[in-house]
Structure formats: C-alpha cells, structure tokens
C-alpha cells in the first residue's frame, strides 16, 4: 500500500477491522452492488484502505461489478405506476439506490420531477413527543423536511465531509442547511 491519505487518522488495525469485516463486504459490496468509492464515502475511510480490508477479508475485487439484473417491466410498474421512490425499490431488492437508478436509465425510464412524493419521510406528521419547535420548523414545507432529513443522514457519518461526499453535495451547503435548521428551531443542534 502506498502513502496513507492525510485525512486518514484512524489506526487501520483498530477502526477498520471493527467495521470492514467479511460480512460487511458480502452485504454491501457483493449483495448490494456498492462500489468501493461509495463504501468509502459512506464509512469515511479512504478508498485504498477499504480495498485493503476487502482483500484481507478474502473478497475478490472486480474492476466494475456487473449491474444487478432488475426486471424492466417490474421496475417500470413500481416506479411509474405505483409511484414508489427509488430508495424504497432499492431497499426491497437489497441493492444501492444508484443500482436502481442506473437500471431505470438503461431501460429508458424517465425519472419523475423531484418533490414530496419521492420522499415518503417528508409527508408524515411528527408524533406529539417531538418538540414543538422542531415540528414547527419542518412541517410547513418541503425545505424544512429536507434539512431535517439531511441532518439525520449526516449524523450517521464520522465527519460532515464524508456525508457531503456520499450525498454528492458540497460541505458548505450542509453547514448552511444546518444553520438554517438551527435558526428555525431556535437551538443549537451539533
């Protein structure tokens, strides 16, 4: 292995070994069809370190894994007729969202315009146990839900930069959204 990336400050034998197990790679790389780049973005580990652990776990790395075979007619019915979002379809199939998106693109299935119907988590009402200031900040519009949902996702990553990479947005965009969410709620979140 070449020089370690300066952003990697973890002892590879400790943190990597705990997370990047054979079971993890079987689930995420082999079954879900995620690429090492995506796994690296989701876990916050440098891609060469992810590849090293995959090889140590006995996982044969392909240059480009073959796309998951998804039935064209079934996908068309689920996405266009039943109005299911890619995320729900991916969860049912046990694959990454991008795998479903790529299949739809290959089959010529045009993506719907973004909106609330594509994000079922944004059309639910928060329960009464949720603080009133949080409910007020998010229930009146799509953007509030979007900011809260992004905040939830980001809190699962070790750094905001790792989350931004995974989401395909700039880190400053996330920071701006979180400041707006804090302002709407009236309290510091992180």
Key attributes of the depicted protein:
0% strand; 3 domains; mainly alpha; 11 helices; single chain; 190 residues
Question: Could you explain the architecture of this structure?
Answer:
The structure is a single chain. This protein has three domains: 12-56; 72-112; 120-185, no CATH class. The protein is globular. The longest helix is centred in the C-terminal third of the chain and has 15 residues, at 171-185. 56% of the residues lie in helices and 0% in strands. It has eleven helices and no strands. It has helices at 12-19, 22-31, 36-43, 47-56, 72-81, 86-93, 97-106, 132-138, 142-154, 160-167, 171-185. It starts with 11 loop residues before the first helix and ends in a 5-residue tail after the last helix. By secondary structure, it is mostly helical. Helix 3 runs antiparallel to helix 10 (160-167), helix 9 crosses helix 11 and helix 10 crosses helix 11 (171-185).
How far is the first residue's CA from the last residue's CA?
36 Å
- Approximate strand percentage: under 5%
Radius of gyration: 19 Å
Mean pLDDT level: 77
What shape does the CA trace take?
globular
Q: How many alpha or pi helices?
A: 11
Give a quick rundown of the structure.
The protein contains eleven helices and no strands. α3 packs across α4.
Give the SSE layout.
Blueprint lengths: L11 H8 L2 H10 L4 H8 L3 H10 L15 H10 L4 H8 L3 H10 L25 H7 L3 H13 L5 H8 L3 H15 L5
Helix pairs in contact: 3-4, 3-10, 6-7, 9-11, 10-11
């Amino acid at each position: 292995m070449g020089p370690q990336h300066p952003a990697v400050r973890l002892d590879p034998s400790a943190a990597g070994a705990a997370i990047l197990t054979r079971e993890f790679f079987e689930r995420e790389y082999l079954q879900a069809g995620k690429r090492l780049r995506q796994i690296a973005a989701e876990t916050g580990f440098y891609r060469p370190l992810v590849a090293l652990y995959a090889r140590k776990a006995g996982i044969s790395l392909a240059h480009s894994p073959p796309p998951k075979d998804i039935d064209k007619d079934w996908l068309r019915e689920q996405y266009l007729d039943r109005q299911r979002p890619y995320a729900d379809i991916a969860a049912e199939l046990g694959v990454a969202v991008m795998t479903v998106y790529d299949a739809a693109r290959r089959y010529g299935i045009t993506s719907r315009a973004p909106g609330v119907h594509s994000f079922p988590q944004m059309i639910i009402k928060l329960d009464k146990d949720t603080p009133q200031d949080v409910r007020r900040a998010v229930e009146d519009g799509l953007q509030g839900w979007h900011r809260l949902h992004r905040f939830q996702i980001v809190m699962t990553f070790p750094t905001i930069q790792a989350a931004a990479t995974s989401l395909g947005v700039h880190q400053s965009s996330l920071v701006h959204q979180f400041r707006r969410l804090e302002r709407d709620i009236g309290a510091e979140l992180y």
